[in-house]
Amino acid sequence: MVVPKNLVTARVLLVDDEPQQLDLRAQVLRMCGFSVLTACGPVEAMSIIAVRRARIDVAILDYHMPIMNGGVLAERLRSCCPEVKIGLETSVLAALYQRMIARLSAER
Length: 108
Fold this sequence. Notes:
four-stranded parallel beta sheet
């Protein structure tokens, strides 16, 4: 993966309630040269911003999380840090596709 040099200095906040997914994505981003902060859910993400006063350029949020979904977290981030670019993601479609492929394979 080639990342433009002006993006490599970006600090990324990665939020996911699934530790394995969080660690994997963080590792990939770090291999690309990004500075990555991780949070295992919305509460920890807000703590990183409020307590640490960490500079965040980009936030990548899992949409489906307990307590607060990624959409609500995005709104809260936007209210306190309007300059942060926010992306939402979900693994729901991937799981749906895997089930569909398994079902189609079983029918053959």
